[in-house]
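Q: I'm writing up a methods section and want to include an example of the input and output format. Could you take the sequence below and give the corresponding predicted structure tokens, formatted cleanly so I can copy it straight into the document?
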Amino acid sequence: MANPNVGQRVAANWELVVKTKPEDQIHDDYWLLNQLSQGDGFVGKSGGDFITCPIEYGLNTTVSSYSDTDLISTTRVDVFDRYEAQWKEYAVTVVVSDLEIDRNSGEGQVFSLLPAKLQNAKESLRATFNADLFGAGTANSSKVFTGLQALVSSTPSSGTVQGVDRGSYSFSRNQQTAGTQTASAFDNLRASIRSVYNLSSNGISSDHPTFGVTTRTVHEGFEGLLIANERFDKKGTGQASFDKLQFRGMSISWDNDCPSGNFYLLNPKFLKLVYKTGAWMKAQPPIRPANQTLDVIVIRTMANLFTTNPRRLGVVTSIT
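A: Here is the clean output for your methods example:
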């Protein structure tokens, strides 16, 4: 005979709840966002029509040797300008009804629903931010962040970025080289990283890339190039690989959102996640419609990715 509803076993026994909060099944470690949303790379500004940075882009070409009464140049030479970028806005909504809140009260509550919904919304924002930070800035009618594929481009001598034509002004170009294999997988990777690292550095003593981010495949390929260094920590225990990877002090990690075949060499001194003060994942006051018993909470962000010096950033592309 069929059960009229859920059956005797379900009706007679309490459910065992193993944990008192939802176990995350979807979110990743958003490594690039984590690096840029802390320290020198995370910059709050009080407002403004654009995000801007004054730049010095040329030499004074009137410099010349002369003798005695020779004429010297009095030509006025322009050497300053600015980079500029638009603000980008993001929003996520959380809807919670009175019925949901009432059901989530008292002895029947497994976890508090509203805080969990708000946390999910913020993590959903973080997931979108991280993906867009790697993008070209053209998705959703260019309403998204100007991401690494634009600022640290695989074709750095073309396109207009932050108001400057890279085809005409070489100072605004990032560093780039290809890491395509010659004979075996990743056989050119290490040399390519070395080249872009040096090109992105300000000489040998200062302003080097501080972190590199790539795909899991390339990360594993780079690790495979390193000399094996197995060691025993204690009797019966061996360490068969490296805990963390570095290149000349530059930390290296992988991110699921990184474009295939790319390895970015970055420095937060010159790559900034700029946000409007008071508008970084900021929850707005709840809104209650006149004809529904529910609240709508909007979480808003106003920000963009910005580079103050593209030539100090680099990318190895087409890695195989």
